[in-house]
Every structure is written in C-alpha cells, then in structure tokens.
Amino acid sequence: MTINESQAVHTEKIKAKCLCIDIETARQDQTVLKEIGAYRPDIDARAKISGKAKDLVKRLDGLTEGAAFVLGHNVIAFDQPALAMLHPSLALHNLPLVDTLELSPVAFPQNPYHRLVKDYKLCTTTRNDPVRDAELAYELFLDQGEALRQRVENHPNEALCLHYLLAQENGKGVANFFATLRRSLRPNLKEVQVAWQAETSGKVCRTAQKVVVEELLPNPLWQKPLAYALAWLRVSGGNSVLPPWVSCSFPKAREVISMLRDTPCGDSSCEWCQQEHDLSQLLPRYFPGITRFRSTPTTASGKSLQQAIVENGFAGKPSLAILPTGGGKSLCFQLPALARYYRNGSLTVVISPLQSLMKDQVDNLETRGITCAGYLNSLLNPLERRAMLDKLRLGDIGLIFVAPEQFRSIAFANALMHRQIGAWVFDEAHCLSKWGHDFRPDYLYVSRFIKARQKDNPSPIFCFTATAKPDVVADICSHFEKHLNVRLESLEGGVKRENLAYEVRSVPVQAKYAEILRLLQEALKEEGGAIIFCARQKTVEELANFLKQAGMDCGYFHGGMLPEDKRSIQESFIRGDLRVIAATNAFGMGVDKSDVRLVIHLDTPGSLENYLQEAGRAGRDQEPARCILLYDDADLDVQFRLLRNSRLTQHDIHSILKALRLIERKDRSEGSVVVTSGEILLEIPDKHRIDPDSSDADTKVRIAVSWLEEARLLERQENHTRVFPGSLLVTNLDEARQVLEKKLGPSSDIEPYIQILTHLMQADDDEGLSTDELILATGRDSRMVQAMLRDLDRFRLLSNDTEIGVTLSREPETGDRLRALMQLENTLVAQLRELAPDADDENWQILNVRWLCDTLRRDAKLDLDPERLTRLLKSFSESFGGGPGLRAFFALAPAGADNRRIKLLRNWRDIELIRQKRIRLSQALVTYFLTHRQGNNLLVTCKQGDLEAALQSDITLQDLEIRDWSVALSAALLYLDTNEVLHLSRGKAVFRAAMSIHLNAEARRRQFKKSDYAELALHYQDKIIQVHVMAEYARLALRKIQAAMSFIVDYFSQDRDEFVRRYFAGRKDVLEMATTEAAHRRILTDLKNPEQQAIVAAPMEGSHLVLAGPGSGKTKVIVHRVAWLLRECMVLPEEIMVLAYNRSAAIEIKRRLWDLVGPDAAGVNVQTLHGLALRLTGTSYAVAVERGENIQFDSVIKTATAMLNRSEGDEELGTSVQRDRLLAGLRYLLVDEYQDVNADHYALISAVAGRTLNSEEDKLSLLVVGDDDQNIYAFGGASVRFIRQFEADYQAKRYHLIENYRSTKNIIDASNNVIAAAADRMKQDQALRINHARRDQPTGGEYSISDPITQGRVHILEVPRSNFGEVQTALTELERLNKLSSDQVGYWGRFAVIARHWDRLEPMAALCRQRGIPVRLLRDEHVPDLYTTREGHDLLCLLKGKRRGTRRNRVILKPGTLSRWYRCRYHCDVVDLIQHPTQAALAQFIVEIESTAPGSERVVTDLIEALYEFGTGSKSMSAVNGPMVLLTAHRAKGLEFDHVLILDGDGWGDRRDEERRLFYVAMTRARKTLTVCEQVKGSHSFTKYLNDVSLRSRPEAPVATTNGLGNRIWIADPEQVVLSWPGYFGPKATIHKAINRLKYGDSLLLRPRSDGKPGWELADSEGTVVTRMAKRFTPPEGVIISVRVGCVLARIAKGSEVEQTKIPAWELVLPEIEYSPSP
C-alpha cells in the first residue's frame, strides 16, 4: 500500500486498494473450508466462493490482483494461516496483512471498544454471510484509521510509540498505515524512548519507567505488549479493560502494567508510588473524613490491625482477618480494591451471603463519590442485572459484591472472562467452615470456580469474619490450602467492643413482651433506634403488632417477606423514619445503621457468633449502646427445634440422589437431567424435612445437590435450554426490522426482538443461547422472552426448534391412564365441591387425605393410593403459567400425618371451565403423541413450534378460546407429567427455571454414604455445641457479666479442648445433647436403670431387640427412646413410628410421650399394625363404615405388604423411590409386643423395615420390644418363633429388661416359679427381679405390714368346687382387702378379677351387683361400637356440624371443646364414675383424645376417624375411681391393678406352655396383692409352683345358696333385631318418640308380635312397640327375670333401605335380658 493510496483510506470517493476477506470453516474441523467472502472496496467487487469450488484459487486471485494489502479481522492468526495450509498458491499470501483485531485495542482502548467489536468478534448483522463480514472488517478499518488519525493530532508521542512498536519493518502492512497517518517513517529507538517517557510521565512508577525505556523497548518480544499497555495507560483509572484475547495472546502486556503501576519502588522521589502506594494519602482520598486507621484492635506489636490488614491487601498477601462487628472490616478490603482498580483496572470480587448488605455497601460508597462498585444477587430485576453485567464486562466496575450462587451463572462467568481479577474477597468467611455457625456449601463451590478459571495461579484471596473461633480459622485456612494451594495469614482482632454494654436478664417467656415494652419506652427517650431480635418469623410479627397496639411505631423484618417490602422497611429504619424494628437474624447480618442505641434479644440466639453479630448492630458510631438478652431456659428448646427442622440428614440427601436417578431413567437422558426443585421434591416423600410448600424448599434442594456434587456423585450446571442460530429464518437485521415494524406497528418497541436476533446471528452455529443470556440481552424476564420467541416464530423470523420429548407409558398405557385420570378428577372435584361448597370466601379447610383417597377409590372404581392422590392434588395446586392472574385452583399446606390444609383460590364455575379446557387439551396432546409414535418406541419427540401449530389447527379445540397457547401447552404437559400419564423427558426447562445436572456415570451404583455426610454431620454437631455455649454465657452473665465477657474471649481464642475443659469440666457430655440439661435428665438420667438407659441411648443405626419382662418399664423405654431421638438426636417427629399392639396401648404411649416432650409428640406416628396398613393403602375406617362395609384387616395388611415389596427397586436405584413415598420419610420404627405378631404382621414389619434390602442406607432403624414368656395369642396366628429369630433376621443387638417396677418381690418370685418350667425360653438365665430402688423394701410391700393374714404373700385361696361358692369366697376376700386400704376404701377400680373364660365371671358380676359393688364385665361377645350408639352418633353429628344451623363444616376444635360439650349434655364430667356404659365409653374416648395432646387444637376429620376406630373402648385401662373389672386373662394383657384375683373356675387344668404363659400374664397384672383361687380337689395346673412363696388358706364355706348368682345377662347384637324396622314409620310416628324417651336400663316387655305373625317384639312401659326382633331371635332358655334397654343405636339408611324406608335416619333399641338358665 503506497502513501497516496493510504491517504485515500477515509474518503468516500477513493477507497483503499485492499482485499478484505473472511472465511467460514467447520466448527469441529478448521481444515474444512465452507466459504470465503472477499471484498474489494476500491473496485466495489464482492465474491462468495464455496470452499469446494474448483475455481476457488482462480476467482480469489482475480480479486487479489491490484490489491496492496490483505485486510481481515483475525486474519493474521486465523484466516491467512488456514488458507496457506489449504491453498498455498494463492496470490494473497504475497501481500502484507493488516488485522483489525490487533488494531482495535490501540485504536479503541476505552470501553465500549467499538460498535462493530464485541469480545474479539465482529458484530455482524447477518447470518453465515462471509462477504458481509469482510465488508464490516473494512468499515472497522476505516474507523480505526480515523481514531488513530485523531491520536496523531492529540497524542503524537503515543502515536509515535505505537508506530514503532507495531510496525517492526518499514514498507509493510501496518508500517505503511502508521507512516501515512503520521506522515513519517518508523521512528528510531531514541525517539521512542523520549516519547515514551513524555507520554507516561506521572502515570507510572519512575523506576519501572526507566526499566521499560532501557530494557524492554529495544526487545522485539515486548513491543506489541508495550503497545497495548501504552494505549491502555492513556485511559487507565476508569472504565477500561484490556480485551481478554490480548491478555491471553500477549500476557506480557499485563506484566508491563503491573510493573509500571502496581509495584512500589521505594524511591521517595517517585511521585507515582508516593501517591498510589502511600496508605496515608490513599485513605482520606477514598474515605473522606478518615485520616488514620483505627487504633484498636492491634497486632501483637501494637500496630493498628486494620492497617496491617490493608497492607496485606496492597501487597497481595492472602489473609484471614477477624475483626469485631463495627470494627471497620469493609474498609480493609475496599481500600485495596479501589486502589487496584485505579492502578491496573483489575476487579475485586467480594463473595457475600448478605444480599441486603451488598446494597448498603454500594450505597455507602456512592455517597462518598465512588461509583465503581456494584452488586449481583437475586434481588435484581432483569434490566438491573443486564446493566450490572454490562458495567462489569466493560470495566466500569472495580468492586463487585456477589452472592455465592452467582458463580453458577453462565452470564456472570462470561462477564468475568473480560476482567483481570485483582483479588477474591470472602466476606463472612465462617460460611466456609463446617465448624462455622452459618456453614454454606455454595461457598465451597467458589473455590472450585477459581481453580477452574485460574488453575494453579489464583489471584490473592482475602477472608473476613467477625466471629471465628480457632477451629473455624483452621478449617478456613485448610480449605484454601487444599483446594487452591493458598496459605492464609491469620490476623485476629478479637470480638470485644468497648462501647457496648452487655446485659442478660432472666425473664419468663410469658413476661418478655411487657419487659421489651418497658425497655423501649426508657431507651427511646434518647435519639437513635432499637432492634429486637426474635428466633421465628411468627414471633417477629406478633411482637411488632403488640408494640403497635401499645402505641409504639414498630416495623418488622424477616426472610419470608417480599424483597420490595424488606427493602422498604430497611430503608425506613436506616433513614430514621422507623425507630424500632422487630427482626429475625436475616436483618441482623444485613443492616448497617450507625445510631442503634439498643439491641434486645427476645429469644436466646443459637450461638455466641450470632449473638455478637446481631448485638453488634448497636453502637456502630462508636457511641455507647446497650445489648440486652432476655433469657429463659425454654429458649434453648426453640433453638434446638429450629436446628432440627432446618438440617438435612444423610437420608434426605440420599433421597434426592435417588430421585434424580429415577428422573434420569424416566428421561432416558444418559446421565443428564434438567429438573426443577419442585420436580425433585415430587419424587421424594411429603414427610421429609424438605416441605415442598415452604419458602426454603428450593434452597434446601440446592444445598443437597451441592453436597452430592462435593461427593462427586453429580455435577450441577446451569439451565441449558437454548435457542440455536440454526433456527434463524431471516438473513439480516434490516429484513427483520421491516417484518417487525409491519407486524407490531411502527410505534412498537422492536429493539428487544432485534437484540434476540442480533445475538443469534453473532453466535457460532452450534453455540446456542441460554434463556439467561436472552434475558440479559433484552432486559425482559423469562416469561417475556418466551413470548417474544413465540412472536418471532409466528412472524417466520425464527423457527421454534425447542425439542419437546415425552415418554409414553405402558401397563397401563398412556391412553388408559388419561381416561382413568379424567374419571378420577371428575370424582375428586365432586367430592371437593361437597366438602367446600363456598369457594369465594377463601378460608382454609382441612382435607383428610386417607378419607378422600378411600372415597375416590370406591367412587371412581380405580386403584388409588395416597401418593397418587397427593400428586393429583399438587397438580391442581400448580399455578397456570405463573403470571398475574394465572392462579391455581387451590393452595395446599401440610396439616399433620393424614391431612392437608386446602384453600380454594377460584370459584367452582371458573375451576370447572379451566379444568375442562385442560382435559380437552390433554386429550389432544395424547392423541398427537400417540399418532406420532414410531413403532414400539415409547419416546416421542417433536418441535415445540410444530406441536403448538398442530394444536392451533385442531378444529376440535377452536372453541376453547385459548389466548396463550404456550401457557396452555405447558400447563397441560406438566399436568400429564405430574400425574404420570406420560413423562415429559425433554423440554421441561422451556416452561420452568431448572437446574441442569450431570450424574457421574462412574459413581452410578454408589450411594450417598455416611462418609460423604461426615462434614455436614460435624457442622450440625457443632451447632448443638454452639447452643449450649450460648446458654452457658447467659447463665454466667446472670451471675456476673465480667465472667461472661471473659467466657466470650476464651471461646474465640482458646483451643476447643482447652475451652471445654475450663468451662464444662465434668459436663462434657452435655455438649453432645440436642436438648437442655433438664430435658436430658428427664429423658435419660432419671431412669436410674443402666439397662433402660443403654436401650434409650442405643445407636441410631441398626436393629435392637429388647426382651422385657412384665412390669419392667418397656412402655417407658419406648417413650424415652422416642424422646431421645427427638430431643437428643434431632430426628423429626414424622420420621418416627411406634407400633402398639392395640389402640389403648397406643393412647398410653402418646399420653406419656406428650408429658415428656410436649407438642413434638403430636407429630410422632403411634398406631397399631392395622392402622399402619390402613394408612399405607389409603383405606379409611370412616368411609367403610359410612358405606356399610366391613374392612378385612388381614387383607389390608397383605395389600400394604405387597405394595412395599413391589416398591423394592433395582440395584441401580437402590430402593425404589416409590418405597420412600409410601413410607413418607419414615426412618425409625419401634414395635411393642413383638412376641404377639403373626405371619402377616411379621411380613409387614419386614417390608417396612427393609429387611431384605441390600442398601444399608435404605433400611430403617428397628427397635422391637417383646417377651416370649407373654406370647398368648397363638389362637390368632401369633407365633413366638418370630421374636426368637429376630436377631438372625436383622443382625440385632439384644438387651434385657428384668427389673420389675410393678409388683412386689413375692409376686415376682411366684411368677418366676411358674414361668421357669416353660420350654425354650429366651430369658432362661434372666429371672425377673424387683427394681433396684425397692430392693430393700419388705418382700410383700406395704401389705407385709397392713395385711395381718397374708403379710404380703401370694395368697392361694382354696375355694369350693362350685362356681357359686368360689365367687362368694373370692369376693369376701376382695372385700377384706378393700377394707385394709384406709385411704382408698371403696375405690374398686383398683381391683380386677381374672378368669380363663369370661362366662365364669358372670356369677361374680351378679354377686357384685347384689352387694352394691360397682363392677364392669369385659365381655368377649358382641358389644356395640361407640359410633353406632346414640351417644356416639350425637358426637358425630356435632363434629360434622349437622346440628349447628350453618352450612360451614367445622375444621378445628379448640382445646377442651369435647369435655365441655359432654358436661353440658350429660351433666357430669368425663372423669366421673359413670354407670351408663355407652356414656362411659364416650367419656373414655374424650379423655383419651384430650390427654394425648392437652391444650391442643384438634382436626375434626381426625376426630371422626378416631371415633370410628375407637370401637367399643373395652380394651382401655380402668380408672381407680371406676368399677371393679372382671375380665379374661387374654383381655388383661397390658393392664395392671393394685389387687388381682385369679379365679379357678376349672379353667387352668391344661399344662401346656401356652396356658402357662397365659397364667403368667394374669399373675403379673398385680401390683400389690395377688390372690389365686384353687378349687378344692380341682385340677389347677400351676398353683403347685407357688407353694414355696405363698400362703394357703381355706375360709369357711359360704352358705350354699345361689340367690340369683346363676342369673345370666344376654345382650342382643344388631343381627338379633330388624335394623330397618323403625325406619318404615314416618317421622311423626309414635315409635320414634317412644324410642327417644328410652334410656339405658329402662324396662322393656318382650312379647310375641302383636300382628299375630311369628316372631317377637319389644314394647316400652306404655305398651308402644319399639323394636321388632329378627327371625333368627329366640329367647334365652330359662326363666326371664327382666328385659331392659341395653343400648340405643343410631342408624342411617343404607343400600336398599334408602328406597324402602320413610325417614333417612332413626334410632333402634338393643335389649339386655337377664334370665335364669334352665337346669
């Protein structure tokens, strides 16, 4: 190129004689030439030549002819070398090269560089058009020429240097270009040296400048780097950065800049170093008003610690700085960061977890005139985020605050690629440590990011925290040394603040609000603000409302608020508009207000670290302030409960891994999964500690994923939903503008659309753009971006090529599944409408899932389980599209084990309309996929655009009036996916923000093991210690605040072991308890039995067998074991299940558990095996009863077992996720009375526990309690062999409980004698003994003294051979014993008479009635269930709201409601002695309900289910003030009485071990006295074993008279009467009035039917017929003594009765007939 030609470079008429080229090669193989674009501006010639063209060389040489040089963008490094390799004979290889890429940094050193350059690429406006790119290169060249021409005029010295440095030889390429611009040939070295000094003087270090001039300028290797450094120096100190490609290709450029500006020379005459490296000058420059560093704290040498930290920052020396809150921490990293940015343009990245504090720090910098700081977190909207990333990329920001999760953002990572990182700053660095109080795994990812970006040469790392004890410091230092090979210098300033006055006050929970009000009224007389910290969000709001009602202007702040509300409150408080704020610690770590004069802690914080952080909000202006803690021991339980609820267990994380693997298998995605947190949670149990509906659910899932990533089981990536350039249907932007203006209108904003197209045009062929990138490009949110993409598709500018993939189902097939779903949905809506007819009031209702599941299963006649129903309900609760107004049908929230809270969000008309649209669209989708299915392939893929087009053209859908097809499509697809009609395996992220996760193929069979969880386990254990440390501080402060302050200093300075030895000497075990010392004593220490303590505190893992003798405290052990798991091991209540042998035992366990641990007991599932089976199968007792059906419990148990066994999945997934869903998060199973399980029970327990599973992580921890000596239900299939093989089945550890707390030593010894003769006993060498505390008491207990006859010995009472004589003698003995108890005479509830057969008890019952002794005979024959009786029906009506005169059903009952209702209705208390049997049963039901959760509200549907399951209540324990109990030995199991008499009745003649065990059970029911009747000359098999330890007596035989003792009571069961008979009479018929008047015990007349037909009827005293007896009824043989009302039943018409009867419901009478049997 000649000078004359060059002079014409920038004229319109004369253009440069150059050949502009651009080549396109294959992405994967640059040796494959696709096209060449050539442009000759001087002759206006263009050519696009195919890489395969045979005449390529000829055509290109033709265009080359006459050209003076070759021009291109990256022509030197890419285009020319590629062409030289492929076509070495081309003429252009002989021409000089001018590369616009290399000229750009010197022509446009200040960002934004140039409109045609982004990164190192040209900003093309066309797609795959190399000719247009060649033209753009020429346009760029012209602009570069003009820019450098201005440089010559304004900065001739710089231009001279650039000429020298970039053009090493005159007459070639760039040399001629610069010669033309400067009108001079290349200067010589001396000229350059002089010009360099003149141009850089005052901008660089004088010493370094000399080195450059003398040593580097002459060196050709340094010349291009020096050129780029020189160009940058002119614009340095502002928004300019060296392009990344320069730093990569010419790393010496960075070295030059560092040498010139970053390295202090130590020469006092160097003006630059004195100004830019002297801290005394820099401090007031960047922080006006601050002229010196803080004098305290100091280093060991007495130097300001703040200054030492800053000096390390300037020296680039990695450090860990510990400064107290308010200690000037921010300045320590801000000052070096600002100085670095001015000197070299580098970026300081500050990683902080505190989103609100980020904004505060940036705002504070801006008030000082510093505008180069910014922040990135989730609070920014898309426009703000885009602006911030642009500033970051262009160099406008020198200090960026980021949340750690931002490092997973592609957009953020790409922006960082443009910057030199001056330092990485970890604020709140304790988040890195497992020993830290706020450990966050996202922090750990940052070091991996740094390693990936900077390899083995990371930028300096600086860590800051206000609270770090020695083990935290060690952990942080170890982390960086291990992962980045960086050693941190520790600079510690302690935690003490001289201006803060700390105080602790002991205030009971109930008095805290009043105390806070008093403190505030006193404090606010002065200027300044106050903060009250609370542990829970609910408390924050309650306290704020309380203070407002007291006339105080108080706001509140917590993490559950909307971001804009939080920001508003925060700013009002900082401005002083709001003087008082109640807040959680979310506020404590995120606010910097200088004049807070008072900080109050309502609740004791979870750690000293948190306390000092939060208290440190006070007095940040260094003026005096107060910090007051209101302490109560109960606060600690709050903290332990919060910790328990927030932590993730190993099993939680493992469940998420299994869910991801299951989703991957469904997706057939070969290791990669695109999934949302919600979709993961849908695959794991509802009852896991991760509640899908909680605000922190997404955070917990992401934390779990982070730990799986740490364990190398997966890698988490960003959402890779991408739009590919290949989907463009337009070739250039001009064409696109025309179309958009026509379609959208000339006044519309088309720029966001143009931005999308521009980014696609500039992307490589296979480089798709993520949704995140498009959001940043357009400044619109995800929903708007999706809408714009659809518009571009509709305008035919872009093809919507997003792939949608579904996997069809088989067995049953997708079509059948959809039909079943529709049927199920129709039934569900019908039921919901019945439950909640008033939708518009939006009140919460309680939904019993088991009741609903069973109802739907029966009505829809479909196989349905609770898990599937839950999925359906969740799909109903999903919002449609997520936009404004696109609400769900209803909201769902947890409400206990079987319940969900539900609130309708739409009226039923809208629900039905939308539902039908979705169903029809779902049908169309399924039809489309089935039509496009190929062969037997279950995977069907299509383009989203094609799918939407097909639906829009479907004439059957035209009447749906769908406004937004994408929203409708996403709702329908996700609905079908959630309900498992099909599986949406590809394309989920099109509709939702999702994570992209890659599962490690090499670890496919590995589980998340204990070793993987170890770090997190240590963190949680340390959190427990922190609570105890905080409590110890409070207790010390209550005594002496100076001692407490020394405690704080030692905590943060001493080694852990040394600290523990000093302050917890002899109490070290306390630190391991996740509960208070008082609770620990109640749960463990106070047991005072080593065997019991060992069982209660046994390892959480594995299985345990407890062989417990009668009265040995097995129920106590079970209860205390549960309490131990809850309180000491932080197990969630929902993870524990106790299986009791009957309902009464379950009630007793619940009652005791509540007494021990309070409300936590409500969440523990205590039930029978039958109850477990009902829950697993979704079977409702209430539904069955109300439909007149019987539940076959054996069948239900087998079904539940089969469900669990089917769910045991393949080896790859370990245990199937289905099993986890069925068990709903269950981890700990405790079984009582294991010796009485039968084969079906054994199989169910085995399936629940996971006995046959290979994965130890999936097996439940199982503890069973039993006693083979008490196996008495062999007739029901129970087998002692199951308990005997338990140890082998489960590799269990065996424990023995043989200390008896119930009986006297004499009774124990007698029992041992009887059972010792049994064969194959498991406790053969473990005889029962009296408990340790009673070992020195008389062997007969209190009756050794008070009973002069037996003296406490077991009494063998020799009785007459006749039953009548036996009972007379026996009762006389019981009356004698009763009189001996002077304090409780007449309390017959302490007595029990036990017989082998219940009919032997009838004479005793008759005799008791004769003598006026209250008695209750527990019959083995039919007794009506409570819910069938008049009294039970009354309660049902109350609960169902049928007598309240309102349409609204009851949802919740307040505490005590039932007992108050009972008192009003029956004029007595539920605890009184009640003779009426059904009223007594009702009272018993109420007592049981209210005693298991005293003071708690109860869900009505739970009460209804409980009433149906209550049965007769006959198995419940008796009360002391109740009647004497007569029962069989089988019924006596589980009961205990002060005085037990065992009748002979000729029932104990069988000597088999089964009978021996039964007699043993009967004996061991006795606490104080045991009397055994032996008929004279009878055949009693077991009394002979008692001779050595008993007293025998034979009282005088009673007078031989029966006196009615032979009378029997016959009680009719419902099959003996015509149940429907009263219903045949109209509502006003006399019969109904007559029955209504009858009550228990009223006399009746049994007579033949009055209509003359065969049969019997009952009439009342007035002769009104009230009951017709069934045909099968025959009066009992003998003389009828009396007929009376035994029970009044309530009946509702069922089946055919509905049509045949005249009323829907009625009452009927069951008679009780007393008769004397025929001889």
Could you please describe the fold and organization of this structure?
The chain is an alpha/beta fold and 1719 residues long. Helix content is 44%, strand content 16%. It is built from 67 helices and 54 strands. The protein has a seven-stranded parallel beta sheet, with helices on both faces. Strands 42-45-41-46-47-40-48 form a seven-stranded parallel beta sheet. Helix 6 (156-166) runs antiparallel to helix 7. The chain is elongated.
What is the strand and helix layout of this fold?
Layout: H1 3-7, E1 18-25, E2 33-40, E3 45-50, H2 56-64, E4 69-72, H3 75-86, E5 97-99, H4 100-107, E6 117-118, E7 121-122, H5 130-154, H6 156-166, H7 173-182, H8 189-200, H9 206-216, H10 220-235, H11 244-249, H12 252-262, H13 271-276, H14 279-286, H15 305-315, E8 319-322, H16 329-344, E9 347-351, H17 355-367, E10 373-376, H18 382-394, E11 399-402, H19 410-416, E12 421-426, H20 441-454, E13 461-465, H21 470-484, E14 489-492, E15 500-506, H22 512-523, E16 529-533, H23 537-549, E17 554-557, H24 563-575, E18 580-583, H25 585-588, E19 596-601, H26 608-615, E20 625-631, H27 634-646, H28 650-667, E21 672-675, H29 677-682, H30 697-710, E22 714-717, E23 722-723, H31 733-744, H32 751-762, E24 769-770, H33 771-778, H34 782-794, E25 803-808, H35 814-835, E26 844-848, H36 849-860, H37 866-876, E27 890-894, E28 899-904, H38 908-931, E29 939-943, H39 944-952, H40 965-978, E30 982-986, H41 988-991, E31 995-999, H42 1010-1039, H43 1041-1051, H44 1056-1063, H45 1077-1083, H46 1090-1096, E32 1103-1108, H47 1114-1128, E33 1136-1140, ...
Parallel strand pairs: 1-4, 4-5, 8-13, 8-14, 9-11, 9-12, 10-11, 12-13, 15-20, 16-18, 16-19, 17-18, 19-20, 32-36, 32-37, 33-34, 33-35, 35-36, 38-39, 40-47, 40-48, 41-45, 41-46, 42-45, 46-47
Antiparallel strand pairs: 1-2, 2-3, 6-7, 21-31, 22-31, 23-24, 25-29, 25-30, 26-28, 27-28, 43-44, 49-54, 50-51, 51-52, 53-54
Helix pairs in contact: 4-5, 5-6, 6-7, 6-8, 6-10, 8-9, 9-12, 10-12, 15-16, 18-19, 18-33, 20-21, 27-42, 28-30, 31-32, 35-36, 35-38, 38-40, 42-43, 46-47, 47-48, 48-62, 49-51, 51-53, 56-65, 58-59, 60-63, 61-62
